[in-house]
Write a structure and sequence with these properties.
Number of domains: 1
CATH architecture: 2-Layer Sandwich
Largest sheet: 5 strands, antiparallel
Strand content: 15-25%
CATH class: Alpha Beta
Number of strands: 5
Strand order of the largest sheet: 4-1-3-2-5
Structural class: alpha+beta
Radius of gyration: 15 Å
Shape: elongated
Helix content: 40-55%
CATH superfamily: Reverse transcriptase/Diguanylate cyclase domain
CATH topology: Alpha-Beta Plaits
Distance between the termini: 14 Å
Number of helices: 6
Length: about 180
């Protein structure tokens, strides 16, 4: 199943009362890490993180590599709330910490479906905002941010598509399932 269909299906279920959480993962200071270890080793760390994420993702969920962010991944947690998302982040970090020779610190942004959200795009935007907050303030990591107006709510109709249109057509190489 393609990513956008999976998210749309789970978003519709959330509108009917099912829990839904997204986690967007990224690497802290990835550019610096790449300069220190070389681009081949940095690319290998991204691939290995994808493998870790694939092992940690339950079959009812989905994790994919985000094409619009370097070294970023999005996990869709069907039936998951904020606590389930935080536990998932902890398990993924623990598994990634065991990878040798290592990878940069992993940051995560969590978004949880809210009834006022009108589209799956808003939920993805919330995950992006949460990851950006974690990148700006690591103490803010792993908790859903205070919900401010999304770009769509501010009238920026093309915001999500301009950043994610390339991702929802994820290639099989970028697709990770557990």
């Amino acid at each position: 199943m393609e990513t956008h269909h999976f998210i749309e299906r789970d978003f519709a279920a959330a509108q009917r009362g099912r829990d839904l959480a997204l986690v967007m993962f990224g690497f802290a200071h990835f550019e610096r890490f790449s300069e220190e270890v070389g681009s081949a080793a940095a690319d290998a760390a991204v691939v290995e993180f994808g493998r870790v994420l694939a092992r940690m993702t339950r079959r009812m969920n989905m994790s994919v590599r985000c094409g619009w962010r370097t070294g970023a991944f999005l996990s869709v947690l069907s039936g998951g709330d904020a606590d389930a998302a935080r536990m998932f982040v902890l398990r993924v970090r623990e598994a990634a910490a065991k990878v040798e020779p290592g990878m940069p610190p992993i940051q995560a942004g969590i978004a949880v479906y809210q009834p006022q959200m009108r589209s799956p795009e808003e939920l993805v935007q919330e995950a992006e905002r949460s990851l950006a907050a974690a990148e700006a303030d690591p103490k803010a990591a792993d908790r859903p941010p205070h919900r401010g107006p999304s770009p769509l709510e501010r009238g920026d109709q093309g915001a999500w598509r301009s950043h994610t249109g390339r991702t929802l057509g994820v290639s099989p190489k970028g697709f990770f399932r557990g």
